[in-house]
Amino acid sequence: MHSFQRAGQAIEAGFDRWQLERPMTLGNFVLEQIRDSCFHKELQAFPEKTSSYTLIYVLSGSGKLIQGEQSVPFGERDFVFAAPGDCWKLDSSSNGPVRLISVRFREVAGRFNLAEVIHTIGTEGPQPVRKDNGALEELLLGLQREIEARDNYAKAMAESYLQQLVVALCRLGTHHATAPKQEFKRAPMKQELAYQAVRYMDQSLLEIKELSQLADVLGYSYSHLSHVFRVEMGESLQSYWARKRILKAMRLLQSGRTNITGIAETLHYQSIHSFSKAFKKIAGLTPSEYQGLYGLSSGKQRQVYN
Questions:
Q1: What 3-state class would DSSP assign to 79?
Q2: In a structure prediction context, what are the per-residue pLDDT tens digits for the chain, which is 306 residues long?
Q3: Max Cα separation, the chain?
């Protein structure tokens, strides 16, 4: 699938790439455009269309979203799901450039009540900014990656990513978004406790700042959880978590979407130094060396699996 790139608007510095030459029908939706932008001052919206929805996702940077008389602050991993006809503009703060991805699409059939999602997804104002837990970012980058791919499977994969993206937004607009996080029952078996620990790290890696937080969620002391994990998994809990974080860092470095400082902050390392030290211990390379070898721009990208 060939990618099409053109300037969306003249910007003082950075880039504004529109990746589709024409709309694509992907299952229940028509994907009209994916827009990859990095700007230092101001970015205007897509031209208004009465039937299309726009997801605006901030990969890095901060500033404010302006809609009419309303001005709302935004930061890294914030997103807005904009209704048809909405007119928006983004202003960056003085701290540096803003990097964002915008996806515009419309429904072919009325299977998803997106108007209701728009209404219920927010807590205040007509189009409030919401914080992503990492799920939307993965889907957006996956969709963009498949649009840029040139093999026979790219369109099917792009359809899958867009479908998952819309379902994720719909869930945010239902009781799934406001329901309390899953409460883990005290596990009757040690093997089950180890499994629950692994699954929580799979699902909520970016939310874990320290392992005592994981123990609290599962309802056990850290010492007990750590002991059970080592016995059942043959590896320490600390070692498993460290490896999961570095594998996530590898994927982020491959994508080229986030700088090394941003990755260290996202994975809750105390400093760039501690992140680099942990990364080299497991990967055998510094983050900069790894990104130079396997980042998108290197042409040597490889897949890293959990």
A1: strand
A2: 544 444 445 445 578 889 999 999 998 899 999 998 888 778 876 666 667 888 999 988 888 888 777 788 888 888 988 878 777 788 887 667 888 899 999 888 666 666 666 655 543 444 568 888 778 888 898 899 899 887 899 999 999 999 999 888 887 766 444 444 555 555 457 888 888 898 888 888 889 999 999 999 999 999 999 999 988 888 899 999 999 999 999 988 988 778 899 999 999 999 999 999 999 999 999 999 998 888 765 444 444 433
A3: 61
Residue 89 bridge partners (DSSP): 44, 66
Global model pTM greater than 0.90? no
Instruction: Report how far apart, in Å, the C-alpha atoms of 172 and of each of 121, 126, 175, 184, 274 are.
Output: 6, 16, 8, 22, 35
Q: Which domains does the chain have, with CATH numbers?
A: 6-178 (2.60.120.280), 181-235 (no CATH), 245-306 (1.10.10.60)
